[in-house]
Amino acid sequence: MNRRTFLQQAASSAAALSLTACTPRKPILAAAPQAPPLPPYDPVPPIYPIRAHEDRLFRITVCLRPFRPQGPRLDTEQVAGKLVVHNYGHGGSGWSLSWGSSTIAVQKALSNGDRDIAVIGCGALGLTSAILAQRAGARVTIYAKQRPPEVRSARATGSWTPDSRIAFTKDAPPTFAAQWEQMARASWSMYQSYLGLPGNPIEYSDRYVLSGDLGAPIPIPTPQPTSPRPELGFARYEHLIADITPHLEELPPCSHPFPVQHCHRTTSLQFNVADYSRQLLNDFYIAGGKIETVEFHTPSDLITLPQKAIIHCTGYGAKALFNDASIVPVRGQIGWLIPQPEVNYGFYYQQLNILARRDGIVVQSSEQGEASGWNDDNETPDRAESERAVRRLAALYARMKPPVTHA
Ligand SMILES: Cc1cc2nc3c(=O)[nH]c(=O)nc-3n(C[C@H](O)[C@H](O)[C@H](O)COP(=O)(O)OP(=O)(O)OC[C@H]3O[C@@H](n4cnc5c(N)ncnc54)[C@H](O)[C@@H]3O)c2cc1C
User: Fold this and answer.
1) In the structure, what pLDDT confidence band is assigned to residue 213 with cuts at 50, 70 and 90?
2) Angle at CA 157, nearest 5°, toward 155 and 158?
3) 4: buried, middle or exposed (CB in 10 Å: 19+, 13-18, 0-12)?
4) Alpha-carbon distance 150 to 122, whole Å?
């Protein structure tokens, strides 16, 4: 069962349960089936609380997910005699699918025998396309308006989320599921080669999915939506790769300190984007790559480039540059709390998504669920939204109980 399916089921079943304080070594609900005890070789490690103070918010960022109902664009076209390979429109999955998507794009760009390649864009998709083209023996120049840390990719959560807002079920072509699986598996495999490196660009961390408050639920603020909430039929594909990621396991009630009825645990990849994007830039430069700062206004501007094969990775920028009206911006804001090296986990609680990264603790609140930020291109940070999220986080930690120590 994936996290989203789990959350939907948990939300409905939690409402039916009575709320009882956790008493160590006694079951919370005598009648309810309980998770089996954890084996001694797999205990819950110490869960250090996050110092949830509004004045520890050192940065608030906004990013726009470049969503296309039919999924990312990976076709080719000729522009003034040049081969343009598109590689944009990855919604909330751009980092996760980057290596796999760029593998497809690079194969197409090299198909004419060209070994001098232009990459437009220096975000997740541009950098991975450029590096893969170099590894295939090409000389590569990146042309981009911005580069990390200014690009939108630098403002992502940094989690393995390969089917997050990637397409609508009704609009994705029948071949897309297989292509998605190919991209996800290729990316997953490539990410393993970045583990254990200095700076920890990529690492695994435990994630907890919390449901069913003990005590009165901490209220979720419900600001009035500016427009009616749309019915969004996002496609789900995670089940296609269930064999490569650890599954969710329910933890026994008193094995963890979270003040909730149900706590599930899994382990997933996290991307420490500050270090990871620097590592990608360094890899690109070491292999002889060059970056030029350029802004293109129309496709015909590409005529000026010396290269005949171009991989186009402008993300949300493609909406204006290639007049792609199918792109919908899905706004997402992150409040960044000062990193705490001892905090090395993430969790989902109601509509809070927390991930402790090396470069900051991500506090993300989706107050309108999956419809949050839909068709909203406002990139101005809303400090009040992040402060509300930190206050809910503080309220949760204020109820934390010490876990039963392992004998
Ligand atoms: C809040 C939030 C959280 C997210 N979390 C995750 C996550 O945990 N995991 C995940 O996998 N994905 C996540 N995403 C999605 C991910 O961030 C995007 O899919 C990804 O950043 C898209 O990368 P990109 O390279 O296509 O675009 P960008 O990062 O926007 O890069 C585009 C590049 O093109 C350049 N450019 C644009 N227009 C022009 C132009 N006209 N001329 C020249 N250059 C141009 C830009 O300067 C930039 O260099 C998240 C998104 C948001 C909003």
Assistant:
1) confident
2) 100
3) middle
4) 10
The percent of residues in the chain predicted with pLDDT above 90, rounded, is 81
CB 311 within 8 A of CB 76: no
The kind and range of the H/E element at 181 are: helix 176-192
Check pocket membership of 89 for ligand 1, CB cut-off 6 A. no
pLDDT at 9: 47
Amino acid at 225: P
> How many A from CA of 93 to the centre of ligand 1?
10
Distance 265 CA to ligand 1 centre (A): 29
231 has pLDDT over 90: no
List the chain domain ranges. Answer: 3-13+25-398
- Please work out whether the CB of residue 152 comes within 6 Å of at least one atom of ligand 1: yes
Residue 224's pLDDT is 55
Contact 3, 248 (CB under 8 A): yes
Whether the Cβ atoms of residue 235 and residue 178 lie closer than 8 Å to each other: no
Cβ–ligand 1 contact at 119 (below 6 Å): no
Q: How far is CA 239 from CA 68, 69, 169, 249, 399, in A?
A: 21, 20, 14, 16, 35
Answer yes or no: is pLDDT of 32 > 90: no
The Cα–Cα gap between 106 and 137 comes to 11
- Of the listed ranges 148-152, 313-317, 348-352, the least confidently predicted one is 348-352
Over residues 176-182, the mean pLDDT reads: 98
CA 198–ligand 1 middle distance (angstroms): 25
- The HSE-up count of residue 117 (CA atoms within 13 Å, CB side) is 35
